[in-house]
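#struct-queue
[09:14] JT: dropping the first one here, sequence first, then the C-alpha cells:
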Amino acid sequence: MFRDGEVKSGFGDVLSRIKAQDADAVRAEAKDLGLDSYFSIHIPKIDAKEDIIANVDPGDKSEYLEALSEGIAHAKGTFFPGQGKNIYLFSHSTDSPLNFARYNAVFYLLGKLETGDRITIYFLDRKFTYEVTEKLVTDSGDTSWLEERGQGEVLILQTCYPPGTSLKRLIVVAVPK
C-alpha cells in the first residue's frame, strides 16, 4: 500500500515488537550478570565483568585514572560496537588478588585468554560477541593500537604487563563472531 510516497509492508509493527523483545532479553541477560546493558563487558573465561566508561581520553592521566576507578575505559576517538571499526578498551591489572578491589583491576587475568575465547560487549541494549584472535605484549609507549587499522570491526583490550607494573602493555585482539 502506498501512503505519502512510502511503501507499507505490514511488517513494521511486527519488526518493532521483535526488536523491543530482543532489547528486553539483552537487558535481562546483562542484569543477571550484574551489568548495565548500556555499555559493559563480560569475559566468561576469566569471570571479568564491568561497566565501560565511554570516551575517556587515554592521554589525560587524571581523566583515565578517575574512569578506571569506576570501570573499564573506552578510549576517546575510537569507535563503538556495531560501527565496523576499532573499539579500544583499557583497564588496570595488579600483581595480587589482594589489590584487585583497590585498583578495580578488571583485566587482572587478561593474559589467560587464548585464541577462540569469547568476549561479550553490551551496548545500547544490544549484545555483541567477539572471539579472541591474537594476544601480544607491546612497549608501554606504543599508541599505534589506538589508530584505525582499516580491517573492519576489531575489539582491542589493553592492560599493563606484567600485572602490577607499567613496564609494557598486554593487548588482546578480538573480532566479531
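[09:21] JT: and here's the second one, same format:
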Amino acid sequence: MLTAFFFLIYNIVLLPILYMGIYTAALFNNKIRKGLIGRHFLFKELRKNNSVFFNKPVLVLHCASMGEFEHTKPFLMEFKKVKPEFKIIVIFFSPSGYENVKTFSVVDLFLYSPNEWIVSVWRFIRHLKPKVWVIAKHDVWPNQVWFCRFFKIPLFLINASLHTQSGRLSKISLSFYRSVYLSFMKVLTISEDDSKNLLQIVPSDKLVVVGDTKYDQVIYRRDESQKKQIISQSILKERWVFIAGSTWPADHQYLFPTVMSLKAKFPGFLTIICPHEPSKQHLDEIYNQISANEFILLSDINNFKDESFIIIDRVGVLANLYGLGKAAYVGGGFRQNVHNVLEAAVYKIPVIFGPVNHNSHEAQLLKKERGGWEVSDSNEIEILLERFILNDIYRQECGLRAYRIVELNRGATQKTVHHIISNLTS
C-alpha cells in the first residue's frame, strides 16, 4: 500500500514538477535539449533495431553517463562470456554518454533511457521484454524500478554506493526511497560502509558487498591503452610530465598559477591538460590563460616545437595519457565531485585532487594510504609537485601506494556476475 501511495504521489505531483523544470531548462541548456530530442526518437530507434532483440533474452544496463558505462565494461564482458545467448542493450540518461559512446564488442545496442513518464517506461519494457535489468551505481529512476517489479523482471543495482550525506537518507525522502529500493532483487555494494548506509533503505537480505568493477576496468583500460601511442616518446624525453585530467574551469583557477610557477623553476616541466568536456567553450577558457606560443593542441601534435603545455582537444584518450605522467591531478574536486582517481593510480603515480571528494570511496582510500592528496589551493598543489620533482624515490613510493589500492580491490567483476546469474537461476 505504501508503494502504491508513493507511486501516485511521484507520478501525479513530483514528476510533473520535475519535467516542468526540465523543459524550461532545455530552452537555455543545449545538453538537456539534446536529451529530450533524442528520447523523442527512442521508439523509432527500437523499431528499427527490432531484429537485434526479437525473441532473444535481453539484459538491459542503465547508466547515467559515459563514466558509469566505462566502469561496467568488465561486467558486460564477463556476463556475455557466461551467458552468450543474451543480447545486451545499454541505455543512457545523459547525452554526453549516448553521443560519445563507441562500439563495444559485447553490446548489441545503445539507446537513450526512456522518459520517466508512465507510458514511456511501460512501452519501453513491453517492447524489449528484458530477462534482467541492471542499474549502475546510483542512477535509480522510480518508474523504471516499479515497472520492472510489475513485469517481474529481475532487477539489480551494481557498484552501489551511498554516502552518509546523501539526500536519500534525509527524514523527508527516506520512506520514499525504501519503497523504491524494495523492488531490487539484489543491491551489490562497493564497500562495507556503503552497505551500512544502504541498510537504512534496503532490507539486509538484499544487500551484498562485492566491491567495484571500476578497479577491474582501470586495469583493463591500462592494458589496452599501452597498445596505442597518443604522444610520441621523443616529445616526452627529458621532460617532467604532469597530467591534469578531467578538469573544469574551477580546477584551472588553482592549477594554472601552480604550473606557471613550476615551469619557471624547472626547465622541462611539461603540463598535459585534458578537460572533462573539450567543448569550444572549455577550450577557449584554457587558451585565455596561456600565451599562444606556449601551448599546442593534441590534434596538432606533429608540429610540436617545445611548447610547455599540451591541450587535449578530443575525448577517449585520458587513460593513455596518465601513463605518460610522473604525477597527476584529477579534476572535479573544486566543482561537483572528483572524477575517477583510479585511472591515474593504476599507473603507479601519485594522485592529487580537490576538496570535494566525499562521494569517491577510492579517493578516501588513496588519502588514507598516502597515495593520493586532497588540496585546497594552488600553494598546496605546488608544494606537493615540487616535492615529487626533487625527490623521485619518494614520488615512486607514493605511486606504488596508490597502485596497491587498485590491486587490493580488483576482482569485483566475477562476484557481480555470479550473484546476478545465481539469482536468475535460483
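[09:30] RK: nice, looked through the second one.
[09:31] RK: The chain has two domains: 18-211+411-425, 227-408.
[09:31] JT: good to know. The chain has a mean pLDDT of 92.
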